[in-house]
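Structure tokens please, single chain.
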Amino acid sequence: MFREGKYPAAIKEYEEGLKRNPTSTAIFSNRCAAYIKLMEPTTALKDADRCLELDPKLVKAYARKGTCHHLMKEYHKAMKSFEDGLKIDPSSKDCQDGKNRTLMTI
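Here you go.
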């Protein structure tokens, strides 16, 4: 559903998946991405934070958290999230691109 651009339907599927496996970082991360696509950064941020509670080393969650903060125009928080992700994986393209995008916006 996500790849087809059917984000609301994808979110429903992710919610069903979370009923079966409420500790899946992959499902939380993917649902976060779907909320970002729907321009719902506040809701997406909750999923990114839940991912990081479950796995504090998940770089993709830091990138998505940074994107959420960027969308909410909380640029200092976005920079911190991207930098936290880069501390774990300095080669993360998502975090580096997000950091650069935020710097350009500032």
